[in-house]
Amino acid sequence: MGEAHDFASVPTDVLLCDTFSQVPEDGNSLSLLLTRSQLFSQSLSAASSGSSRTSFQLSDCISCRAFRGKDPKDIGGYFKVIFYPLRGMLGATSYRQRITRTFRTEASRDREHNFNLAKTWAQKICQLSYEQGPPRLLPSPPRFLVLLNPRGGTGKALTLFETHVMPMLTEANAHFTLFVTERPNQAREVVQEQDLSTWDAIVVMSGDGLMFEVINGLMERPDWAKAIKKILSILPGGSGNALAASINHYSGHQQVTGTKLLTNCAFILCKGHPVPLDIVSLTTSSQQRIFSFLSLAWGFISDVDIESEKYRFMGYARFSIGTFVRLTALRTYRGRLSYLPASSEEKDTTCNGGSSSSDSKETQILVDSLLVPLDQPVPSHWHTVEDQFVLVLALYQSHLGAEHFTAPMIKGPGEGNIHLFYATSRISRKSLIKLFMAMEKGTHLDQEIPHLFHVPVQAFRIEPSESSGIMTVDGEVIDCSPIQGQIHCGLGNVISMGQGPHQ
Questions:
Q1: Which residues pair with 335 in a beta bridge?
Q2: I want to staple 46 with a disulfide (CB 3.0 to 4.6 A). Which of 52, 169, 429, 501 is the partner?
Q3: Which helix (H) or strand (E) holds 167?
Q4: Domain with CATH 2.30.29.30 in the chain
Q5: Using 50, 70 and 90 to split pLDDT, how confident is the model at 278?
Q6: Would strands 201-206 and 143-148 be described as parallel, antiparallel, or unpaired?
Q7: What is residue 193's three-state secondary structure?
Q8: Using CA atoms, how far apart are residues 377 and 400, in angstroms rounded to an integer?
């Protein structure tokens, strides 16, 4: 469509080519080229030097629409396109930043013809941007149930949703229902009781605690095997934001915090696709079943997490303060740690999104095929360590917090391994400081830290000798007592993005 223009190096897969002007600029003519992956713009007055040539990746586009001018006498046709490319100042961390461009055409004296030309461009850009990357597997427009905890973190989640997320969802033509929780476990009850077919995905804006509620609520439904497949998404609105930081990492973004992380995750929600999410099934000595997407911690890490609650008003800085306080009075915990190494031939056979259950009825239960009852000894081929521990951490996502890149070897949320970290009482305070400082960049495993161990496992058991310690699952406190768990590979689904060129 239209005549060819003099680009320094014209792409070979040009689909559309026309002359527009950019508004509200000076009205100079631009040559626009559209390929399957990029939109090119060049000022015709500078075409020979190429100094005014710009390009935009369609994979960064979330919206494009055509419209007419407000003045009935304006015969031009317009389209507005919105991109969120990764940008950062020289040497600084890059993150998604909003860029808009509005173009006007007056190719004809016919107002309707000009509008139709702009509409052709807008529709083609929308189509091609949707086709970038793997299939989205979500309807267009998608319908989201947004569960938001207004008291998470520093208590600004609702305001941040209104200022940073809602505009992007509106521009992306996503339909959403916002549910603001008023008390603990309300989100759990909502997903237990609601007809989930009303929505295409459940979006959680909070810290990791609300996602914990949602996953356990889904697993408590009579139709849990179907419900747990409901697509989930995370937006950071709490203090830790470990899952949000992990999804941000899997999507090829650099490590960021605050509103930068929120903008990245909102973009992932608009442009991502569902991928398998590992879930660990835990059983306590009281026979309680708990389902976890992130971690189980005992000792130093859980002590810091819970005892720093008094500093919640400080946001993520609460964990730094809590770490310092706990290092001054280091505790140790006697117990037994047993595990089934990932290198074992015995594996969870349900990987890649399956599930193992006890029967075919709707009330079936998820079977932990790698575990024996807690009152029986672990199988003989398991490994056992009996010692005085400073910390034990079972982690199945890359990040333990927005600034704790704890498991850099994890490249996606459904890899099927638990990464078991433990440190015995022989570890020094200096080594612990070194550990947590290096963990911000994920370089701690490259350093020599005596008495810190890392083992990929399929299942584990923790047996504290005393009940006085703090134990957490996904940051939520549970009784400090014997507990065991195994991973169920890809049991859930979460929205992420394939790793792109931006690492």
A1: 387, 464
A2: 52
A3: helix 166-171
A4: 16-131
A5: very high
A6: parallel
A7: helix
A8: 30
Q: Which amino acid is at 127?
A: Q
What gap in Å lies between CA 497 and CA 132, rounded to an integer?
Answer: 11
294 contacts: CB under 8 Å, gap ≥ 6:
208, 212, 242, 243, 395, 396, 397, 400, 474, 475
Give the chain's end-to-end CA distance (angstroms, integer). 37
What single-letter amino acid sits at 493? N
Contact 219/228 with Cβ under 8 angstroms?
A: yes
Longest dimension (CA), the chain: 85
Structure-token pair, residue 38 = 């990029």
* Phi, then psi, of 214 in degrees rounded to 5: -65, -50
**Cα–Cα dist 162/165, whole Å:** 6
| Exposure on the CB side of residue 68, measured as CA atoms within 13 A | 13
CA dist 105 and 25 (Å) reads 13
Residue 107, C-beta contacts closer than 8 angstroms, at least 6 positions apart: 2, 18, 19, 113, 114, 117
Report which residue type is found at 82.
Answer: I
- Residue 282 β-bridge partners: 290, 485
Which position has the token pair 């509103």? 259
Question: For the chain, where do the domains classified as CATH 2.60.200.40 start and end?
Answer: 281-489
3-state secondary structure of 283: strand
The per-residue pLDDT of the chain, averaged, comes to 90
What CATH architecture is 16-131? Roll (2.30)
For 132, residues 6+ apart whose C-beta sits below 8 A from its C-beta are 37, 57, 58, 59
Topology of domain 281-489, CATH: Tumour Suppressor Smad4 (2.60.200)
Evaluate whether 145 touches 176 at the Cβ level (below 8 Å).
Answer: yes
Q: Identify residue 55 by its one-letter amino acid code.
A: S
Tokens of 317: 């800085």
Tell me where in the chain the CATH 3.40.50.10330 domain(s) lie: 143-276
CA distance 425 to 36: 58
Phi, psi of 495 (to 5 degrees): -80, 130
Amino acid letter at 452? L
- 485: tokens are 């768990």
Give this prediction's pTM: 0.91
Q: What is the CATH number of domain 143-276?
A: 3.40.50.10330
Residues with active-site annotation: 208
Give the β-pairing of 483-496 and 452-464: antiparallel
At 307 the three-state DSSP class reads helix
Q: Which two tokens stand for residue 71?
A: 């003045």
pLDDT, residue 361, reads 47
